[in-house]
Write the structure tokens for this entry.
Amino acid sequence: MANKSLAYFMRESAKNQEIIEIPGLDSIKDESGKPIPLKVKLLSKKEIDDIYDKYRTKELLYDKKGKPVINGGRAVFKEETDTNRALRRIIVEALVYPDLHDKDLMEYYECHDFSEMPAKVFPSFKEYSYIEKAVLTAIGIFEDEDGDADDEVQEAKN
């Protein structure tokens, strides 16, 4: 059997987060009329899981009589995740440019919750839909059925 060195698993790519550039929106252009490209940080699975955990609630489940539900000697809990807010927060954390954490940008949109920023900065359905698909496809959460955003993201990664 070959040497069982753990060095194979000590990859720099696993420690460092890659930032890729994806095509921008046709509705947001620079002085020369070209769409401004966006920069996306490829979040790790742990970062994504941590975000989902922040938007997960867990509460004791009660029966119709108001008594806690017990199964196998243990209390049963109802767990819910606000997936929409979690996905918006993932977009905020993944976007490096524009930085949706920026104080001035948040003040401009009169926004106090990071998870609201994607909908404020990209208010039309078409803009928001593109940003959501492009960012979530880039980080691997979402797979684009029609392939358009996925092709552009794959091209940006290469």
Q: What stands out?
A: The mean pLDDT is 86. The longest helix spans residues 125-138. Residues 2 and 38 are 44 Å apart (CA to CA). The chain is about 40% helix and 15% strand.
